[in-house]
Amino acid sequence: MKPILLRGGRLIDPSRGIDEKGDLLIARGIVESVGGKLGNPDDADVIDCAGLIVSPGFIDVHCHLREPGREDVETVATGARAAAAGGFTAVCAMPNTEPVTDNQAAVGFIVRQAQRAAAARVYPIGAISVGQAGKVLAEFGEMVGAGAVAVSDDGRPVASAQLMRTALEYARTFRIPVIDHCEEPTLAAGGAMNEGIVSAELGLKGIPAEAEEIMVIRDILLARLTGGHVHLAHMSTRGSVELIRWGKERGINVTAEVCPHHLSLTEESVRGYDTDAKMNPPLRTAADVEALQEAVKDGTIDLIATDHAPHHYDEKEREFADAPNGIVGLETALSVVVTNLVKDGSLGYSDLIERMACAPARIFNLPGGRLEKGSVADITVFDPKAEWVVEPSKFLSKGRNTPYAGMALTGRAACTIVAGLVVYRSGVSA
Amino acid sequence: MTGALGKDLLGLESLTGDQIRLILDTAEPFKEISERAIKKVPALRGSTIVNLFFENSTRTRISFEFAEKRLSADTVNVSSSGSSVSKGETLVDTARNLEAMRIDMVVIRHSASGAAQFLAERIESNVINAGDGTHEHPTQGLLDILTLRDNFGSLEGRRVCICGDILHSRVARSNIWGLTKLGAEVAVCGPRSLMPSAIDEFGVKVFDRIEDAIEWAEALNVLRLQLERMTSGYIPSSREYNRVFGITRERLDRAPRDVLILHPGPMNRGVEIDSDVADGPHSVILDQVTNGVAVRMAVLYLLAGGKPELAEAAKGGSGRGREEDRS
Predict the structure, then answer these.
(1) Which residue ranges does chain B devote to CATH 3.40.50.1370?
(2) pLDDT at position B322 over 60
(3) Predicted ipTM?
(4) Active-site residue among B7, B21, B45, B59?
(5) What is the 3-state secondary structure (H, E, C) of chain B?
């Protein structure tokens, strides 16, 4: 393994307060030297980073890689390559596979598939309950032993407050977060989009913001009760932001994520019954988008995650109410955030890196998240000025379901390095 | 082959007031055709129309079929049961297969909101929405409005209240858009559990009490109460619904004026409307049905590229209006 010299980039590591122009040397899979001019030591491969930003590797704590079960729409390998192309050095895979990732063997399978893919790292998330059925607690201990980094029944939200309480208590032993998809099932039943004027006009059953918020406050209160760490997935409403703020002010162990689409699109995208604008939680109102953007800036929301959810073309090419929820996000996340939050100056690159690299590593207790001598060499190099038009057919993901198709975006990964190996470089998958 | 309405009729929300007036004006000469002994003109001779009904319908399907036949179109009826749809074929595949047989128009009724638009964006034939989920039912809205116009002359400033299950009603939505665009004042009345939570943003008046609605309105469009609304818990019982929201003779007698009564059918007598009201002197419920055929003839004719001013001539039997336009 030859050393790699990232030459002349803007090195940003908010965890250490670094933002300076300089070189970064990687050797034997770890960061050897950060900053200054390093010449060309040890015949390193030199990557010219002039005009580019060198960041700790981005980590997506929320994606759906569909393997095992739906290898026709995504596999661990294609998902890991798509992640690398989007600048992610690691992703966490949700357990709503077929069969459900609810035991150590299933977790181990994903770990092995990820090793074979040799692209972005893939950390499995185990199920909270056996079969995600919401009844019996899954074996957290064995799953963590096999490589799981968190537990969640994502996609099949935990309806029982008692089960959620037990999960938060039990997870403390293993120091892992319990991730909840906050959705009160009876209020959300049959809903296809945000409840409001647009759903009323389109004649689609709505999901009220309160369906999310009721569960957000339930989970925060259960975290207070148990001292467990609850991580709230894909927050979508202004009310949720206020509730999280309330919880954090009281020192409750709650963290939260938001998806790029909830920071950039509103329910208006559903007009025309575009199934690529259908996801759960649904796109909300402009006031929600504004509150979520504010929460990302002030840290009420800790991190940005994609909820990457590939679906087959045929499944999306149908009547809106019958189409599945979800969009792909790994290859557009960085650009959507840069275009919608950074470009107008409201979010700095340092904050972006905190939300996409440092916070995920810290909160999920994962390697990376730093540019420091001796730290693992998971590095994302991105071009903050790159202009491109989203062409789904060029995605490395098998999924093409994106509401950003045809849109011009700014900012794009130039080079993704995992453990000192280049796994993606400007349009060419390694 | 795009006329004054565009390729498709998907809803009244996307039409202008002028386009709605054009349909109503075009319907006028077509009314007379149905009164003849020989109820047929050659305006759509040679056109092939598929009535694609994924949801049960008697009145709308028959009304469309009469409209098509009275314009001399060749028609085929496809229903979901007993067709390839029941074998799992997707909506778009069904439509593309029909289109491959070289058809000109599709009239679609479907339980999913947006199904008509979905189809319209994927096939070249004209698409007419005959009711999509809880979204729109534009020809029903048009025939309701035509019936109101027959009685009022103009809709401008007229007060119309739509009563009942607004939340699940495509008829309500089409009426709200259409009436508003023609300058009518529109209100809704019904239990709040059967109203969109965003109803206040629709720009319509909302009455919680039917007595207040009757006092205000010059016409009531009384919607059918679907029985499944009780089983799914939106309201407790049809008996209480009748007691609280039913249009009864007693309630109408207290109105300060005669109130025109419309109902899109089929009626639940004794639930949303009492028989003596439905059959009473101010009921125009059967006029609606008659107007339905004329309105649908007008829509078919205009979408096929017929010139509105030639509708009169088409009625006369030359059929040339359409031919000229297609060349």
Answers:
(1) 17-136+292-326, 138-287
(2) no
(3) 0.90
(4) B59
(5) CCECCECCECCCCCCCHHHHHHHHHHHHHHHHHCCCCCCCCCCCCCCEEEEEECCCCCHHHHHHHHHHHHCCCEEEEEECCCCHHHHCCCHHHHHHHHHHCCCCEEEEEECCCCHHHHHHCCCCCEEEEEEECCCECHHHHHHHHHHHHHHHCCCCCCEEEEECCCCCCHHHHHHHHHHHHCCCEEEEECCHHHCCCCHHHHCCEEECCHHHHHHHCCEEEECCCCCHHHHCCCCCCHHHHHHHHCECHHHHHCCCCCCEEECCCCCCECCCECHHHHCCCCECHHHHHHHHHHHHHHHHHHHCCCCHHHHHHHHHCCCHHHHHHHC
